[in-house]
Structure formats: structure tokens, C-alpha cells
Amino acid sequence: MHTINPFTDPISGILLALNMAFSMFWEILWALILGFTLSGIVQAVVSKAEISRLMPNDSPKSIAIACCLGAASSSCSYAAVALARSIFRKGANFTAAMAFQFASTNLVIELGIILAVLMGWQFTLAEFVGGPLMIAILVFLFKVFLKPRLVEAAKRQADRGLQGNMEGHANMDMSVTSGSIWQKMFSGRGFTAISHCFVMDWVSVWVDIALGLLIAGALAAWIPNNFWKAFFLTDHPFWSQLWGPIVGPLVAVLSFVCSVGNVPLAAVLWNGGISFGGVVAFIFADLIVLPILDIYRKYYGFRVSTFLFITFYAAMASAALIIEILFRVLGLVPQEHKALVVEASIKFNYTTVLNILFLALAALLVARFFKTGGPDMLRMMDSSSEHEHSEHHHH
């Protein structure tokens, strides 16, 4: 893989960046469809109605339930943040709501599948081991540093109902409540619910995925590995392992890309020389990118949003560092930095076959979505969010 200076040869530079972005998209397309289908199935059989009631405090039981329910929900970072505020306003414990939010973006199925496809199973394992560890560290930090007056301030601000992003998606509950799990999945209502959740998830994250692929393609095409090696201290293994978890979240904050869209970026950083723990920290940090930090400010106020940034960053970096040490001791860190970032060359191989099969599945789900009032649901989702906002100001 070679790089091109976009200032000296802009046309070739842009074409190479787009080529690499499309290559990564082609490699992960079937995985995205599979992940969102599985997510849609889970959302169709798991109701959001009881979420607030099941998380009344920050006990280990409530936190465990928050993690399970979060992992079963949407992977959209904006929707996760909006839903966390919604369940907090309805009576859920603040710490449990934040744990739910973390699990919603770091323990979801589609993230693990895409990590395995682009980077290897070790990163998927690190994500699902590190995610609960990060949440445990966060809960500990909240117990030590979160004062009741901060929670009260967060509640007052949350009850003002200021709008962030994906409010309608967060409030939507398409789950089927009657029958066994198999009946929910294979009934007509279940199929409709799955198709609606599938399309809604795509609508909520496609911008992040596209942005992540384009930025990853540009970084891979334009920035030589020498720069990354110097930046990530790859010639100093000990310091590199410490530096990676510290700088990984900061790179994520400035990238503006969250949800599964940051995996292609992580692949480029891994090829550039960032440490294993640095990759893990970067992926964890989708909940502290700049647009989401601004949403925290709207939702909970400046003081609480600052507290969230500091504690989230500390939990992400420390969990990633522990994962780095643990996986090195166990011999699970890949020896070579070779994530799947290549120039596009579509061939008739297993990736193409899988893409064809899963595109057919996606077409079936999208057709069901359109036949069962899906577009109206999308419009209603947006209008209900606006109505709730106007009602709040009226009162």
C-alpha cells in the first residue's frame, strides 16, 4: 500500500482515498448487514418499557442488568446517549443509565463482527472483555467522586428536555411483547419489528459509517507510516504501550466519528503502529467525541458534562491499559500490524458471495419496512421528538 501527497497530486490522492474507503466498505458490508439484522432481532424481542424500572440503583445487579439491556439495544452512539437520558428522567439510577449507555455502544454484536473482519478476533475479544471492565471502573469512579448535588443538577437539567440527536430513535420501541422468543421472531409482527429496527439503525448510523470510512481512506492514502510510527512511539515499545491508551481517546475525540464508524479508523491507526491498548481505548472513546460532549452539556449542564468527560476518559484509558497488559501476558496481542486496509479489487471470493447473500437479506427487510408503514414511522419519529420539545416549552 502506497501513499500520495494530496497537495502535490490532489486528483490521484482523492481517488486513492476513495478507493481505499470503498475497499473497506466492501469488506465489512456483509458484517454490517448481519450485525444490524441480529441487533434488530434482539430489539424486536426485548422491550424498552421496563428498562427504567430494572435499574433503580447502582447495585451490582442493576449495573449487570444495565449492561445486558444496553448490549441488546442500538449501537448508535447518539441514540444510546438520548435513551440513557430518557431512562434517567423516568427514574433509573444515573450511574446505571451511564453503564447502559456504555454497553449500548461497546458491547453490541455488530461492533464485534466488524472488528473481527477488519482487525482480527483478538480485538473482538478485547472489546468484550474490556467493555465490562471499563464499566466496572466507571462505576467505582462514580461511587468515589459523584456527589448527590451533581446528580440533582443533572436531573434538573435533564428535565428541561433540551434536544440532542436521535431523540425519536431513542424513544422508539418496536418490540413484540406477547408470545415466546421464537414466536416473536417468526410471527408477522416480529418480522415487521425486525425490519423496522434494521432500517432505523441504518438511518441512525450511516453518516458515522460513511464519515469513518472516508476519513480512514484519507488517512491511509495520504499519511505515511513514518508519521504514525513517530507519533505512536513505536520505536520505544514500553512507552508505546503506555502512550497508546492515553492518546487513543484523544484521537477519537478529534475525529468526530462514533459508533461502528470508528472501526475503519482504528484499523488505519493499528497499521500505523498504535499499541493494542491504544486501539481498544480509541474504540471505547466513541462516547466522548466532540458532538456528544456538546450533547452532554445540553442534557446535564456544563459541570456534569465536564465530570462525565473526565471520568469516562479515565475509565477508557485505564481499562485499555489493563487489557494491553493482560493480553500481552496471555500472548494474545497480534505480532504484526496488518489490519484489512487495501486498495479495492473486487473479486469473486467469499466476501463477494457473502455480500450478495446479505444484500438480498437487506433488500427483503427494506421491502418489508416500506410495505408496513416504515417511512411514516420515520417521519412520526422525528415529529414526536419535536412535539415533545414544544410541549415542554408550552408547560
Write the layout of secondary structure elements.
Elements: H1 10-45, H2 60-71, H3 77-89, H4 94-106, H5 109-118, H6 121-145, H7 148-158, H8 167-171, H9 181-186, H10 188-222, H11 225-231, H12 237-255, H13 262-272, H14 276-284, H15 290-300, H16 302-329, H17 350-371, H18 374-394
Question: Can you describe this structure?
Answer:
- The chain contains 18 helices and no strands.
- By secondary structure, it is an all-alpha fold.
- It has one domain (10-394).
Helices, by number, come to: 18
Mean pLDDT: 85
Task: Give the topology string: H per helix, E per strand.
Answer: HHHHHHHHHHHHHHHHHH
Structural class: mainly alpha
Oligomer: single chain
What is the share of helical residues?
A: over 70%
Main beta-sheet annotation: none
What is the total domain count?
1
> What is the distance, rounded to the nearest whole angstrom, between the alpha carbons of the first and last residues?
60 Å
Number of strands: 0
Globally, the shape reads: globular
> How much strand content do the residues show?
under 5%
* Unreliable stretches covering 5 or more consecutive residues: 384-395
**What Rg, in angstroms, do the CA atoms define?**
21 Å
